Structure formats: C-alpha cells, structure tokens
Amino acid sequence: MDFNRRELLKKMAFAAACSAAVAGTPGVSFGAWQESDANSADITWHKSPCRFCGVGCSLLLGISNGRAVAVKGDPRGAANRGLACVKGFHSVQALYGSDRLKKALVKKDGKMVEVPITEALDLVAAKMKESIDKHGKDSVAMYTSGQSTIPDGYAASKFMKGCIGTNNLDCNARLCMASAVTGFMTSFGIDEPMGCYEDFDHADVFVTWGNNMAEMHPVLFSRMLDRRQRDKKVTIVALETRTTRSGVASDKQMIFQPNTDLAIANCISHLIVKNGWVDADFVKNYVSIKKGRTAIEGPDGLGYGLGEKDGLQKDKPEPATWEEYVKFLEDYTPEAVEKISGVKADDLRTLGALYGDPARKVMSLWCMGMNQHTRGTWINNLVYNLHLLTGKISKPGNSPFSLTGQPSACGTAREVGTFTHRLPHGVVSDEHSRHMAAEIWGVPYERIPSKPTYSAVPMFRALDRGDLKFIWIQCTNPMVTLPNHNRYRDGSLKEDRFVVVSDVYPTPTTDVADVILPAAMWIEREGMYGNSERRTQHFDKLIAPASEDCWPDAVQTMYVAKKLGFDKEFPWTPENYAEGMYREYCKFQEGALHGMAPYEVLKARPGVLWPYVNGKSTRWRFNSALDPACTNGKAFHFYGNKDGKANLWLRPYQKPAESPDTEYPFWLNTGRVLEHWHSGSMTRRIPALHGSVPESYCEMHEEDARALEVYDGDMVKLTTRRGVLEIPARINGRGRPVRGQVFVPFFDENYMINKLTIDAFDPYSNQPDYKKCAVRVEKA
Amino acid sequence: MPVCSFIIHPAPGATEELVSELSAFPGCEATPSDDLSLLVLVSETDTREEMEELTEKLRCYPRVLSLSITFGQL
What we know:
The complex is a heterodimer of chains A (about 775) and B (about 70). Chain A is α/β, with parallel strands linked by helices and about 775 residues long.
C-alpha cells in the first residue's frame, strides 16, 4: 500500500514539474511524460473546469487508484486552448490537505464535538424551524458563493425563496461582480457580456481598466500577448493605480489616481465627440441617452452604503438629449482630467484616438478595479458608453468585456440567481418571474416575496443587529473577505445567533460556527460551473469525497429542506440531484435569449456557450447577423431594453467614500496575487503555491519607505478608522504602488487586511469598495 | 519520505550530462525535455532534512543555472 502511495506521489510530482515547465517555457515538451500518460493503465483522464477563477479553463484531470494525481490543459477547451496557470496545474492538490474537514462538528457546552453528518443536519433543520417559529421566516438566511456549482445554487434558491418564502439569500459574488450586473442591467437590460473570448483573436487594441490580468486572469492574458506577438499593430494599454505585471507587459501604461476612472472614461467620450469619431448612424438607431440620480447627500442622495443608506437603491432614469450629453462632457477636457486623474492630457488623447479610430477593433477589459467601487455601476456604464458612441460593440474584436472573478459567479450567482433580488429567471419584484418560479417549482405564487431583502454586507449587518438569528454559509469565507470584518465577526458571535458553515477546510469562518458541515469538494461530486464568457462546463464525480460524511452543498440543503417538509420540491436523490436540478433549471432559461445546452451536450463537451439555440451557441449577442434572438429587422437589437436600444448614461466623476487626509495620509488598496485563490483556504494548503508566496505583505513605494526608515521585510503598522494591522513591508516587489499608496493582498488569514477596509458600497449593486480607503502607515 | 519535483535549467549543452549525473543521486530520477533545454528531477528522500540538503546541493551544483521546486509532499 505504501509502495503505491509513493509511486502515486512521484507521478504527481513528475506531472506537476512537466506541466509547469510546458506552461512556462514556450516550445518545451516532454515526450516521456506524454508517453507515460498514454501507456499508463492506471491513469485515466477526465474533463473538468478548473476549480479556481472565472476564466473557466478546461482541464484534463488524471485519476489513478481513486485519486486525482495530475492536471493538464484540455486542448479542446475553447477558453484556454490547452493552457493553464500555476493554480490550475496544482489545483488537484487542494483536495488533499491534511486538515480536510471530514466530520461534522457541533458546538456543545462551548466546544466543537464530532457528530455524524445527519445529526448535524437534523440540528440545522431544528434550529432553522425554531427561528422561523419564534421570529418569522425573515430571521433565517443563506449566504452562498460564486464557487457554488449550479446545482448547489439552484438548491439554495429553491429552498429559501420557493420553500421557506424569504429572499434572505445572497452570496459572495455580491463582493466581486454585483456592479458588473447592475452595469449590464442599466445599459442593456440584460446581464453578461455580449462577446466571448474569441474577441481576443480579433481585437487590435486592448485596454485594461484597473485589471491586473497577468495575475488574475493569466490564461486570458497569455492569449492577449499571443495575439500581439502575431500582429505587430496590436496595442495593449494598461490603466492602473500601481505598476503591476500587466502594466509592465503593456505597450502603454497609464497610472491614475483612485476613483478617477470615472473622469477618464468621460474624457475619452469627450474626445470621441469633439473629434467627430462618433458612429452617428449607430447612435441614432441603437442608443438611448439617459441621466439618473447624482446627489450624494440629502433625502434623494446616493450616499456610500454607510449609516442609513443600507440596502439596494433604485435609480430614477430620465431621457436626456444629445446636446445635454455634449454639454455634460465639457467638464472632462484632457487638461481638466489630467488634474483629477494624474494621467497626462496627451496620454488621454492617445487613448481617445485608439477608441475613436474606426479602423481599429477595441476590447475593454475589467474586473475588480471597476466593480469594487462605490460608483461601480457608473463606471461600467461609462465604459459601455465608449463602445456605444463608436459602434464598437457586439462584433468580433469590438467588445467591452467584464471579466469574472470566481468559477461560477456567472453560472451560479448571476444565472441561477443566488442574489436576494434574483430568481432563476428574472427578479423577485417582477410578477411574471415569480409566477414562472412558482409554476416550475410547484409552490404557491404567494410564497415568493416580491421585495429583495439583504445583500451581502447588509445581511451581516442584520446578523449583527439581531434582525437575523440564523445564517447558513456555504462555500465561502466571509470572516476573511468581508470589509470592516471585525464588526461582522463580533456580530456572528453574539449570544442568540446560530451560524452554520459548510466548507472543506477550517477557516476563520468555521471559527465562528455553531455547526460545521464537511463538504464534498469540486470533483468529489458532479456539478457545473459557468464562466465569464457565458460558457457552462460540466464535470463528473471523479473521485470519492474525503469521507462518507462530506456531502455536496446541494445534498446538505436538500436534506434540511426534506426535514422541514419539502420532500415534493426536492424529489431527487444524492445520486441524481445534479442532473435533476440542472434539467429543472433549464426550464427557466428556455428560448433564444438564454437557452441552456441540454444535459447530454454539456456532459459530452468541455463547455458550451449560452444562448444555445437550435443546437448552436450564440457567440456575439445583439448583432442580428450572429444572434437569432434579434427580431427587430435591423442590424442590431438590444433586446434587453423595451425600446430595443442600449442606454448611454450621463454619469459624473465623484470622489470615493473616504480619501487620504492628514490623519490617514495614504491610500490603501487590496487584492489578489497569482498564486493564491481568494482567502487562501485552498491554495495555502498546496505546498508549491504556499511556498511561492507564504505570507501577505504591504507593497510600498521606495521613497515612502525611505521617509519612514522602513526597509524591505520590516514590519509596518497600518491604521485605518476601523482597525490596526502590523505586516511586513515589500519594496519594489512584483507590484509597485505610486507614492502615497500601499497595496496588501488579502489571501493570508494571519494578516487580516479586511479588518481595515471600509464597508462602503455602490448604491445600486451594494458591492463594497476594497480598492480605496484612507490609511496611516508607520514603522512598527 | 518527502517527494519533490524540480525544474532545472542547465548550462547550454550540459543537459544530457546532468541527467546522467543527477539520476545517480540516491532517490533521484532526472528526465530531459525533448529539446534538451531543461530537465525535470523527481526526488524521494528519507527525511525533510535530507530533502533540504539535496535542494541546497542542487542549487549549487555545477552547470545548474536555475532551480525551481514545483511539487513538495513532505
């Protein structure tokens, strides 16, 4: 037995090295590796999407003796074409951390005690019932994940909205993608990108808006560099607030002051209009000009999600004229915006000319920089404006492209709808959508409430206040990732709160739990993810879970639902639930707008784009030549909006919720690094990844460090209005902030940077701003 | 019994020679890439200390230009 284990480990070691070498060195191959794979009787290869980011790389996983032992990129995968990144190549090792949760734990007399999973789930059901009986159905909540599979999310949505009858369901995608959703909805009336990754093969200009793709979306970054290598006229422009690997690899880097992307986007629009680069026919036929609320203070003020402005607000759109729009843009001359943003007027003109040149196809790319923003909806709108003004949209290579962070933020959170305001089709406030859900779910229409309740941060505020008594957290680690998280940790620990956590490893979130439920992870069960480009990918159960008590989240939810009397709504077994739930979910999306690929098609292919209509995927939406959902008889049809047009918005530049001052003179920015996934609960258990970046750090500009007499590796003390953290300084590391700014990765629970971040958020998306708050930096 | 793997970039023209020398180390198997530009080494040692000693030895070994650890099961 030991011999087998050693051989297995050596195969894994060999495969990891070959994979990394092939990925990192163009042209290198290992015939011996391929040969050994092909000839090895005890390794079989199976398709699966990667467990980590939203790129959605298709992988081939090598399974031997019931264990996942090797990874390679799937050459059939349309997203990655055989590539994978360092996290992907090491992904299977995340299954085998020595401290996997294998038994359910229940708090008894202040101590966590192992119990069988069914006993723990019985307690969860009893506590949920007790809370509902005592405090009403809105006293219970679920908080799930953009890493939940489609069946996991579907089970949670049906259980909470269709069975319990509360909209107290939200997810961590609120922290990463909600502004992208509200951006799409306000501009196009329908969610998710109009283009697909094939745009990378056609674009001549790539503009990254505050998006370090080299580390966050490395495979797509490789595709972008490959495109440039093949065509010398391709230009990459990196708009960023600090120098990153993406900026270094770009043709032109433009550093801007935090939050001023709003002004930059309006400046480019100003240049497009002033220089006659507007595609007048496109604007006339396919664009509606709108203005909305702009006051910050007062009864109709947008605020910043702090204090009384706690919850999802609605805009009040009004039509605006072209003349109003042109006048609005007068404030955004290159010289004026240089003063606001720090980007040179000539650089802004260069950027304007790239967007304006009718001969060049432009792809705009963004992720957290634009979405984690107290005006995240607005900056999404403003970048769409650039593409609408120039008609550079819904055509191969002309593509505003919102990238996702998580592997199923699109597939589960946005499509299945694990947000408080969403249903699998449409929103809870829409009568038709509620009727559809009631009919498909077989529940009374009246049971589904029409009003959204708590988005992520307000959900934990409600737990802190005591409006929520019970919360079930699945597949996410909010006690590391929530902003200003001390407040929410303290709230979770209050006397009469009951916290249930389903996860695969111990985390700071399981530390606050009353019940911990061990979950089956990734390929330990069947599932589907949906990536950034509307591609749904299915994976089979390839290995046994870490223990018999590790159940898929959907099966845990189903067990509790049945325990509470909802047998009829969950007619599936642990063996057939994934197929059953997917088939039922597909009924919500039937039609040319969002038709999903049949289960059999998903199982057979590495991934399939939706809309899937008459056996074909729609690659570019809203373009009548390419999208069968267009029915207006014109070249383009923005069918998400009633008038068939896309909205071009007047959205001004505004300052963020908090800016540096004399007491807190630096900007604090936070984010990820290539090697680690989110809060690090999986990647920190992968030796090679943990060894590469073993702890977090504070990136500083060398002159700021010198002024504070801080040397690389010295401890610095960071203080904000919310907390204090001592952390090693990193000077001239892979990321280099400008003077007056610091950057801290959030993957390391030993240096909990979210104690310091501000829980301000966008009024429409409620997505928090992790990218900017004021901090004091001192030598510790 | 730690198992590790490394990517080694050898000095130009030294790959085959290195493969044969490193494969002679106890518990080590070296495999060259097809174009002989680099090699992969899988090691199995009795203790963590031996693994660390081996790593150090490889780092300083003549004609090894760079060494990256890609897998480590301790």
